[in-house]
Design brief:
Elements: E1 5-8, E2 20-22, E3 26-28, H1 34-48, H2 56-81, E4 88-89, H3 99-106, E5 123-124, H4 159-176, H5 184-190, H6 204-214, E6 217-218, E7 240-242, E8 246-249, H7 255-264, H8 277-280, E9 282-284
Parallel strand pairs: 1-8, 5-8
Antiparallel strand pairs: 2-3, 4-9, 6-7
Amino acid sequence: MRLIILFTIVFISLAASSPISVGDGFSLPTIENIESHIDNLWTNFKKGYNIVYNTGAEEIHRFKIFANHVKMIVQHNIEHDLGLHTYRLGINKFATLTNEEFRQIYNGYQRKNYDRSQYSELRRSYIPASPFVTLPVSVDWRDQGIVTPVKDQGQCGSCWAFSTTGALESHHARATGKLVSLSEQQLVDCSTNWGNNGCNGGLMDNAFKYVHDNKGIDNEDSYPYVGKDEAACKFRRKSVASTCDGFVDIPHANETALQEALALQGPVSVAIDAGQSSFQFYVSV
C-alpha cells in the first residue's frame, strides 16, 4: 500500500435592455420589468424544480423570498455589467430559501478548538517548499484525471464529508493510478465516535482519523449517498477502496503554503464560508 499523505487547510469566516439568461435555463427580466414578469418566472421555477406547496400560506411565504432574491440577482448582474463585480448570479434551487435557512442546511463545517495531540500519529509537519522551486501560475488537477465529478450533498450538513472524500479520492488516484469515488455516507453514518455529527456537521481532520483507525473507506457504489443520517453504520470491509496514512495541516491564512501544497502535492481539503448570497446564487465569472 502506497503512502497517502493528505494536505488540509481550514479557513472560515462563517451565483440591459434585453432579458438576462442565467441559472438553470431561467431567463430573468430587466430591472424595469421585474414586477410584470415575476409571476411567470415563479410558475416556471416551480415547474422546473417540480415544487408543490401543501398550503397557500407556505407558497406565499416562499414566493416573497423568491421575488426578493430575483430583484437582488438582477441588480447584481446589472452592476456586474458595469464592472462592479467579477461574477454573475442566477436563479437555482436555493431561490426559495432565506440566507439563514441556506446556512443552516448546507454549512456543516464545525470549527472547534480540539486537542491536536489526538492526531499525533497522523499529522505530519508542514515543510515549506524550497525557495528555488518555481510554482506554476495555475493548476487544474482535473486535467490529470484525478478529480471525481461534482457531487451534491443535498439537504444535509455533510460538506465536511465531501471535502474529506474529495482529497482522499485524488491522492489515492495519484498514488495508485485509479480514480475511485468514495463513500460520503459512510463518514456521515460511521464517524460519530470520532467527533463528527453526520448531517449536523463535522470536521475533516476527524474524518481522516476515522478512515485511518477504521483501516479504510468503502467505495461510493457499495455505500451510496442518501443525504440523511442513517440508523446504523453499514461499512463493509470487502468494499474498502482507500485508506489514509496521514495528513498535513497547512498554516492558517497562509496563501503561499496553500499554493505550494496544491501545486506540488495535489488537491487540498478546505472549508470555506459558502453561506453568503454570492455562493448561494453564484453562476459564473
